[in-house]
Write a structure and sequence with these properties.
Layout lengths: L2 H12 L12 H10 L5 H14 L3 H5 L3 H8 L6 H17 L7 H5 L6 H10 L10 H10 L12 H10 L4 H17 L18 H5 L18 H13 L5 E2 H5 L5 H13 L3 E4 L3 E4 L12
Antiparallel strand pairs: 1-3, 2-3
Length: 298
């Protein structure tokens, strides 16, 4: 038995029942899930994914709506530029591929906002191809089981892709299953701070477990502070704009945060990122709303 065989057998018995893993899920549904899951836990993504796919079951459905609707629908998932990237991606899929998510890795990589990880994930999980799909969870599992290290580096490298590819079976379907199995193991068993080694199919063969080495004390990385940051202020400003039916005057945005300098900086950042558009000097709308007919005030 190889690591891949053990991982697949474990996955078949223990995988979480997530909607984007269903056999009927489209490649578009897989792509949406992968973008939403970036830096966001599954428990928050699942309801958002269901709502998104109900409203926009195909790329063409999303491309037909203005970008502002994608930002509104994104709600409070965080990192709202991902909504903009998904909208741009949907438009490109319609224009370049007739509304069908391409299966070719290079064509996926050429879509707006789709990087090395997401392109490989869609090709693998939606189309059953053989590609090394490496995220934080996979890097941690490979680092421990194969290399005997308690954790992997801070970012995916070419060496990580090579290491994962060497573990994949030659058969494409089994390789795709192995990729998601390694990822699931890292997410729910071989976790960063509290690995559940007795439940791991690799326990007997794991190079790190054999060393008996303990995890370093303290968190593996410093938690990101949210309260009081520009990120929080940006979120508060976007919340007002998402629920507005027309242009929002600056005075209405002024009340969401007391610190004038920080508030102005956060608003300017939203404009620079293309999430918000100014209308004149003192009115603002979500990106895309400026090109839509505005309600008349009688």
């Amino acid at each position: 038995m190889t690591f891949a065989d053990d991982a697949i057998a474990w996955y078949d018995e223990n995988a979480r029942d997530l909607p984007w893993r269903q056999p009927t899920t489209s490649a578009w549904g897989v792509l949406v899930s992968e973008v939403m899951l970036q830096q966001t836990p599954v428990v928050r993504v699942e309801p958002a994914w269901r709502s998104w796919m109900t409203r926009w079951p195909t790329p063409a459905d999303l491309a037909a709506d203005p970008q502002s609707e994608a930002i509104r629908m994104w709600g409070r998932l965080g990192y709202p530029r991902r909504a903009m990237r998904l909208h741009a991606c949907a438009v490109a899929i319609v224009e370049r591929h007739g509304g069908e998510v391409p299966s070719d890795l290079e064509q996926l990589l050429a879509l707006p906002g789709i990087g090395t990880y997401t392109s490989r994930a869609v090709a693998t999980f939606a189309y059953g191809q053989r590609h090394p799909v490496v995220d934080t969870n996979v890097r941690r599992v490979v680092s421990r089981a194969v290399e005997g290290k308690p954790d992997a580096g801070a970012a995916t490298t070419a060496a990580d892709l090579v290491a994962m590819e060497e573990l994949l079976p030659a058969d494409q379907a089994r390789a795709a299953k192995a990729s998601i199995a390694f990822m699931e193991l890292g997410a729910i068993v071989c976790t960063a701070r509290a690995p559940r080694c007795p439940l791991c199919p690799f326990e007997a063969a794991c190079a790190w477990h054999a060393t008996g080495e303990k995890l370093p004390e303290g968190p593996s990385r410093k938690p990101q502070r949210y309260a009081g940051t520009d990120r929080q202020v940006r979120g508060l400003l976007l919340e007002v704009l998402r629920h507005a039916s027309g242009p929002v005057p600056r005075q209405r945005l002024d009340v969401v945060w007391q610190d004038e300098v920080q508030r102005a900086r956060a608003l300017a950042g939203l404009v620079d990122d293309g999430l918000v558009e100014p209308l004149g000097a003192d009115d603002f709308v979500l990106a895309g709303d400026a090109r839509q007919p505005q309600p008349q005030i009688l």
